[in-house]
Design goal:
alpha+beta; Glutaredoxin; 2 domains; 5 helices; 30% strand
């Protein structure tokens, strides 16, 4: 495994600006009707997740209107369809998706928890208020697999022996964060699991993140640590094991074993692991403070035990 197989363009920021999705499992030119010719004048859905399987997942995406730009309504209507034998799509869920504003620039994505009960071809339809006041619709198709590449909710966390300050007191050898935060490197995942501690694990390379969101993500995790460190251990796992050798060029980068253990197809990732070592929530791509805080509350992480 020479590099993480990112399923986005270099950065989702550019994806929103250009209206192009590089997700290998998504055909953004496909409409819900398999017989209808695609319209390039319609708004486009650009997905910010790549690892969707049977189960409930956080679906994150942007919407781009041609000639206008990214749609940033507070909420939109979301319809989830399943294609059975490539016949007419079957409506499975009608949901709302909330706009999550990122802490960088004026960007963000819509998110909603979506349940896929079978693998195969699924359709995602959205209805939104355009800037001209007209309700518009667009759709796209995604492929749902039987099993995720990365660990899923309900799986046991892998006891990785990621690098800590016990291995290197010089944090520049174990993180590309320009302002390394010592508490993130005091425990390995294996140590935390052995001690029965709840954990927030952040996988990402702040300096060399392929999606351009790991730096903002680690800042969010630092804020969460400031508020909730009494309830759980916070761990940052750097993507590359030789950060001091990279010097801006990741062509000679070596992936850390923990990333291979967890079989991550992209970055960044955040996992919430309870005291029993069970994954209770996961976030692919940038997750806001509010999203993670809600997950901590809903999964009873913020209860002293």
């Amino acid at each position: 495994m020479k590099s993480i197989q990112i399923h986005f363009c270099v950065s989702f920021i550019f994806l929103i600006l250009l209206g192009v999705s590089c997700n290998q499992n998504v055909n953004n030119n496909s409409e819900i009707s398999p017989n209808e010719a695609p319209s390039f004048q319609k708004a486009r859905i650009a997905f910010a997740v790549s690892d969707l399987s049977v189960g409930t997942h956080r679906l994150a995406f942007g919407i781009l209107e041609p000639g206008i730009g990214a749609v940033k309504n507070e909420e939109i209507k979301l319809e989830i369809f399943f294609f059975q034998n490539d016949d007419r799509p079957i409506l499975k869920e009608t949901l709302s998706a909330k706009f999550q504003k990122w802490p960088i620039g004026d960007k963000g994505v819509y998110t909603s928890n979506v349940t896929f009960d079978v693998p195969g071809k699924w359709g995602v339809g959205v209805s939104f208020n355009s800037t001209d006041g007209i309700v518009k619709k667009t759709s796209s198709v995604i492929q749902v697999t039987e099993k995720s590449q990365a660990p899923s909710i309900g799986d046991k966390a892998f006891p990785s022996n990621n690098s800590t300050i016990n291995i290197s007191r010089n944090l520049s050898y174990i993180t590309t964060d320009s302002a390394p935060y010592k508490p993130f490197y005091e425990y390995s995942i294996a140590e935390s699991l052995n001690e029965g501690k709840a954990i927030l694990i952040f996988f990402g390379s702040p300096a060399f993140c392929t999606t351009g969101t790991c730096g903002p993500q680690i800042d969010i995790v630092k804020s969460l640590h400031s508020d909730f460190s009494e309830y759980l251990i916070f761990i940052h796992v750097e993507i590359y094991e030789n950060p001091t050798e990279l010097e801006g060029d990741i062509s000679n980068a070596k992936i850390v074993q923990a990333v291979k253990d967890w079989n991550l197809p992209s970055e960044p990732w955040i996992f919430l692991v309870d005291q029993e070592g069970v994954i209770k929530s996961r976030f692919e791509g940038l997750a806001t403070y509010q999203e993670i805080e809600i997950a901590l509350i809903e999964n009873n992480f913020l209860i002293s035990k």
